Amino acid sequence: MSTPSKKRSPTKCADQQRVVLLLDMDCFYAQCETVRLGLDREIPLALIQWNSALAVSYPARKFVIVRGDSFEKIREKSNGACVCIHLPVTSLNDSTSPTRGQELNANMQSQNDAENGAAMGHLEEDIKASYDAEFNQPAHVRDDMYKREKNKMRSRNEGKACLDRYRLASARIFSLIDETLANNLGRRNYTLERASIDELFIDVTSFCNNPEHDQHEKIDDNDNENGVDFASAEKQFRSTCQNNAMQSLQETNICDENNLHPNDINAEKALVLGCHIARIVRGAVFDELRFTLSAGISTSKLVAKLGATYGKPNGQAVIFPGAVTKVMDETQIKKARMLGGKLGKKVLSLLPENETTMGSVARLLSLDDLIKGVGEEAGRWVFDACRGICTEEVKSTLRVLPKSITAFKSFSSVGYPELEKWTELLASDIVKRVELDTARNNRAPKSCTLGFTTDYGGPWIGKSVRLTFPSDREFDTRVKRLCDNTRKVLTENGVSNVIRLGFSAIDFVARPSKGIESFFAPAPADVKKSPTKTSMGTKNGTCAKQKCQTKKPNGIEAFFSSGKNTARQQDPNHCNNQKCVAADEFTQLSMTGTKINESAIAAPADLVNNSDTLTDEEIARRLHNELNNNSTADMMQPAKEIDRDQTVAMKLQSKYDRENDVLTRVEKYSAGNKRKMVGKTETQKGAAMHKKSKLDSYFLLKK
């Protein structure tokens, strides 16, 4: 997914009819297994987790199989016709393998190495490659996987459920949808919001209300990315979409079509174009990835989501404004968006026993009834929603990253020492996923929460404790630190057994792949530190030429060696055997804090000759001016080809460093006067302290 161009806010056009699409992946988890294993779509399939149906395909629903059915019940209902596939499990044996940490370290290193390329472009390629490796295996490999996994059940004691496969498929589908929209509409003409792992909203109001393009608003011909000219693609799509839109409408289920006048449909040209865009996107996903999607098209997020239910499976439906009342009469309150939980139950409690639809709310409950029953804000929202009115905007989530990464596991009841292996499994999982997120998104968590539950019947997470997320370089070290911290927390809280345990990585901060921070990264293992004392090979009393040649410093060393070390630089063709220090060694010594000969930094001649007669303030002033002049002279040198971060670093060569040098020289040149302080009276010492405070004030003024 590429970075979107600046675009209009399509939902804020008050004079335009909103056009909102809801795309829903059909039976997503079950469909993932159908695509991965290359199965016929008519084969009934149920995805199982710990002997409970997690997802049921549409062919399997013909046998009245529902979520939560056990493996035995599924087999009984379908007379053995329904295939059961268990979702992936991260095994305890895998997590405790001695080589697991090494393998993950290698994988993460390859991810980190890849950061140095174009980050987002690499992310797309990484997702494509990972998807192909998981979902596009050769036919004989798929056949072997199917035989191995068909109707094989797993025990919750084997390990932890892993959803990485489905997250990967979701990311690939979302990426393709974004790419398809950009290639046809142009990036500025749509907003994409991810609603869940298998749903997304798209606002195409701007495009659909102006399909032929406003001549007063010029398309930016420079709107291109990675070699793709989106502006030209947009012009081409605009030229054909009007002719193809009616064909797309014929393939769309029109809700309450019998009660709509043809003129009502013709007047809604923007929604008709929305139908065409939905068909283009669904077709692109199926052609490329073989996944089917259902779509709802209407004037708001609430109604578009209802429309998708009329298009399932593998179809699409449009709800024109004239059909909203009929749709609301048919929609159960608990099926409407945002009303499937406590709010929906409160609304139901306000209605007569047999009235359970959104239309019932519109007919039977006044605004005052709703406000009194569910509160001011919620009451007003429900009053509008049951009439199909929803002003909630589609908010772009293309660059919005998850705020947390979690790994949890439920048990019957377990304590130490058995809990140790489960803690290690969860810690390994969270560290692995954080490493992958860091490699892809250039960020890292500062903290993590340890959540645990000890009693049945209470909240899902009984207690949580915030921990610092380990930042050690080695994978195994991070895992061990999390395990040790978990044991410490549980012990301090007197916890002997838990029924649920997990980690949640939070508080993510940016970690640039390039920039000034990278200069502080540890040196590669093959780079040896320069010794404090140099030992250079000689021949006939002269250093070997290649040993003395000055190396051009780079990175942060470049600005540490700027200005101050000019006196240390030697003629590459000649040097003194006893005092020769190569430039790269000099900067290494500066970085490691090794003491450098102070005479290497020249002081003004008048200061050296007259230091005994000058006050500390005057010494400081002259040294400060000299250093500033040197710094200015360095800045006036001919411009060299340096990167932006190095330029910033040079500008940030701190006043603190220069002032520290001044203070050091003040101590040197006024040393004689300080030795005379021995034996002085308190009054004289007080005068000296007053002089020092004036010196400090001088630097405060400089800042």
**Structural class determined from secondary elements:** alpha+beta
How many beta-strand segments?
A: 19
Cα Rg: 35 Å
Strand content: 5-15%
Mean pLDDT: 75
Brief account:
The protein has 703 residues and is an alpha+beta fold. The protein is 47% helix and 14% strand.
How is the topology of this model organized?
Elements: E1 20-25, H1 28-36, E2 45-48, E3 53-56, H2 58-61, H3 71-78, E4 83-86, E5 89-91, H4 92-95, H5 100-114, H6 119-135, H7 139-149, E6 159-161, H8 164-185, E7 191-196, E8 199-203, H9 205-208, E9 224-225, E10 228-229, H10 230-250, E11 253-254, H11 262-267, H12 269-289, E12 293-298, H13 301-311, E13 316-318, H14 324-330, H15 342-349, H16 358-364, H17 367-374, H18 376-385, E14 405-415, H19 418-441, E15 443-453, E16 463-468, H20 475-492, E17 497-510, E18 538-539, E19 542-543, H21 545-548, H22 556-560, H23 583-591, H24 605-610, H25 616-635, H26 644-651, H27 655-669, H28 671-675, H29 682-702
Parallel strand pairs: 2-4, 11-13, 12-13
Antiparallel strand pairs: 1-8, 1-12, 2-3, 5-6, 7-8, 9-10, 14-17, 15-16, 15-17, 18-19
